Amino acid sequence: GDSVTQMEGPVTLSEEAFLTINCTYTATGYPSLFWYVQYPGEGLQLLLKATKADDKGSNKGFEATYRKETTSFHLEKGSVQVSDSAVYFCALISGYSTLTFGKGTMLLVSP
Amino acid sequence: NAGVTQTPKFQVLKTGQSMTLQCAQDMNHEYMSWYRQDPGMGLRLIHYSVGAGITDQGEVPNGYNVSRSTTEDFPLRLLSAAPSQTSVYFCASRPTASNQPQHFGDGTRLSIL
Fold first, then answer.
1. What are A8-25's pLDDT values in tens digits?
2. Are A44 and B43 in contact (CB < 8 Å)?
3. pLDDT recorded at residue A29
4. Pairing state of beta strands A105-110 and A11-14?
5. d(Cα A26, Cα A10) in Å, to the nearest integer?
6. B43 near A90, Cβ under 8 Å?
7. Residues of A whose CB is below 8 A from B99
8. Are B105 and A43 in contact (CB < 8 Å)?
9. Inter-chain contacts counted by CB atoms under 8 A, chains A and B
10. B96 burial class (0-12, 13-18, 19+ CB within 10 angstroms)?
């Protein structure tokens, strides 16, 4: 079945540091890939998505590239802010199946 | 633009009680689903529906019932609450096309004593 593996957290960074959160997947067919973000006490919000190989999703300074050859969709940001502190979830969907999530990675950014 | 609305936001139950978590969406989405979120477990799918009158089980369906009588509403019923069902519950919806993102409600925090 489909699965998503994310690096375990928490990831602790200082403001303006570079962020990478690794995400790899296994799936049948050609999945669409997503990053969701969950701020404290809130639901999940879509951060970015990519629907085919070599697509780059981007939003709010975050980027992720769909790498079919390495089955990866790593999340990056060049300069994090305190307001980026949240839990980040990598997810995929293939065909008409349900969305499969990774376990989430907590990011803590200090001033 | 309400999106996905969940009620209640918080609930405390005693073991053995039953209750219904409500979920409504105003985006005319065919696909709706319920997840539970537990520490270190990510989000796990409980039940989902691909349209009115159609429901199916997800990864962790035991102890929960759903129905989908309208496109807008997708309630989740706990038949006899157990402490293991203490969790945060999220409802989500999306259009049928699988490359479209899901929209999530703000969640219901449920504690079973």
1. 889 999 999 999 999 999
2. yes
3. 79
4. parallel
5. 23
6. no
7. 32, 49, 51, 93
8. yes
9. 50
10. exposed
